[in-house]
Design a protein that fits this description.
The protein is α/β, with parallel strands linked by helices. The protein has 11 helices and 14 strands. The chain folds into 2 domains: 201 residues, DHBP synthase; 90 residues, Threonylcarbamoyl-AMP synthase, C-terminal domain (Rossmann fold, 3-Layer(aba) Sandwich). Strands 7-1-2-6-3-5-4-8-9-10 form a 10-stranded mixed beta sheet, with helices on both faces. Strand 8 and strand 9 form a beta hairpin. The structure holds threonylcarbamoyladenylate and magnesium ion. Magnesium ion binds next to loops.
Amino acid sequence: MAPPPEISRAVDVLRAGGLIALPTETVYGLGADASNDLAVRRIFAVKGRPSSHPLIVHLPSVERAREWTLGLGEAGEKLARAFWPGALTLIVKRNATVSDAVTGGQDTVGLRVPSHPLALELLRAFGGGIAAPSANRFGKVSPTTAQHVRDELGSDVDLVLDGGPSQVGVESTIVDLTHQPPRLLRPGGISREAIEAVLGAPLTLVTHATDVRAPGLLESHYAPRAGLWLVTAEALHDEAQRRLATGARVVVLAPASVPVPAGVVRLEVPEGDAGFAQVLYARLREADALGDLILAVPPPESGLGLAVRDRLQRAAAPRPG
Ligand code: TXA
Ligand code: MG
């Protein structure tokens, strides 16, 4: 069966070396043909991202993913079987044909089979790998709707595929399988607990940029324009009042159960970790539009709470310059 017209158009853009925005279950990606160096370099230019920071290659199946590697290895095969298609990126030794433009010259490559039906349909129709970071400018909040991408990238992207709001809402979990034991480079849409259960062993947690070149590991990242502060549910009321007294427009990101003083704008988030993850980036964008400063109450660390806390901490980190 011929693919729908929008998919055919997207495939044409990719084959011509253009950039597309594609929906995934985690966040929207800014995609290019992973085997076309010029197209891949355009991604870095549009994002304003240092070229030494590698991109994730998206593929339609485990079989196709293996072709980019020297083998997924036992742990990789297990994790792929359990979580692909889905919000997990595996870092493995790359095959010699994988371009330096994608990997930042490293001998490893990040691979993911996304589960969004439109992304899978596009990947199958295209046939190759699609290199795609999140479709935002470097250091900014990731997009979870097609409109977020249009607002932020405008005509810098040749075509935006609209697949509705991203269901997971935070980026994929990144597991580095080139180290023993495997390392958790970025908490994300698949919980640490679920991965450790499949591996039957704990992951090493990497929290600060060391030898790893991953933008998500820089302190300030995922940052809105307005200043962001993290507070406990108990401290929120007094802290909000103190900020209000300075004349600031205060936005609070917290579940309905947390009391807030009159005069703040409350943006509600669901009580559960997965619900919080789903709305996190959209709420940060709304908060940016409504206030001068944002007070957020992070969820507990379990499940997707680890990823939400990680993104909030980086959004709250001191900004360079
Ligand atoms: O959910 C996601 O992962 C989204 C969607 C679009 O798939 N993509 C995404 O890409 O978040 P990006 O580029 O914003 O973040 C990918 C992270 C970066 O921190 C990058 O440095 C890291 O993955 N990465 C990619 N390849 C790597 C490698 N070979 N070694 C270490 N880190 C790698
Ligand atoms: Mg990103």
